[in-house]
Task: structure prediction
Amino acid sequence: MIVRNEQQLKSIKEAAQVAATVLDRMVQLVAPGMNTYDLDQAGKRFIEELGAESACYKYQVGSRVYPAFTCLSVNDEVVHGIGSLDRVLQSGDIISVDVCTRYNGYIGDNCRTVAVGEISPEKQKLLDVTEEAMYEGIRAARKGFRVGKISSAVQKRVEKEGYGVIRDFVGHGVGRSLHEEPQVPNFGKPGQGPKLKEGTVLCIEPMVNMGSYKIKMSDDGWTALSSDQSPSAHFEHTVLIGANGPKILSVPEGKEAPVLV
Ligand code: MF3
Ligand code: CO
Result:
């Protein structure tokens, strides 16, 4: 787990602010009739306008190279969906918009799942619970606590509703690279994992299926889908383990961070 100095934290905060601004602008474009290729291209433009670059584009896992600039995952797509001209958003859909940017050598990463037009109360509840689970995790992100404190807080909130929290993807440390130590699972026991240190930055990001937590991979090799085709939501913030508690860094410049009570 890397502890950052003031200068490094300032840079990570700037990168996270950029990622948050891009995310804000992108979700404003979400509407019935929009296709996910155009939404991704808009994300590319916003990232460039802010002087940053996408940390997803050309991201490599083994021999696979990620082809899009943001990750756009609709309905039963869990994470890492690839924008497509054929994927036209319809009222009643939900879409996760995941933006990770590199700015001055540092990474910021954040995600939100939003409604397209009018959605069912069941889907709205999935979004609300997943966001609440993220905040439960963030509140547990304190120096001296173990990573498992975050994991168990997230899992509890999710499973109280009978939803499934994804095992195959986890949150992560962030800084110079997108995925750093420690891993931050969204399930587990409070006593598990390393102790959190002041000056560490984490991405806390529950992924939640309305049904089973199991996933399957799509033929494109990237998109994860819920195994039972149930809708899936994903919320993520970049969070500093501060001297006086957690501090959300992925907030657009000039905006107030969400209040953690
Ligand atoms: N925010 C995503 C993550 O932390 C970004 C993944 S980049 C991709 O996993 F190339 F894998 F899509
Ligand atoms: Co992430």
Remarks:
- The helical segments are 6-29, 36-49, 121-139, 147-159.
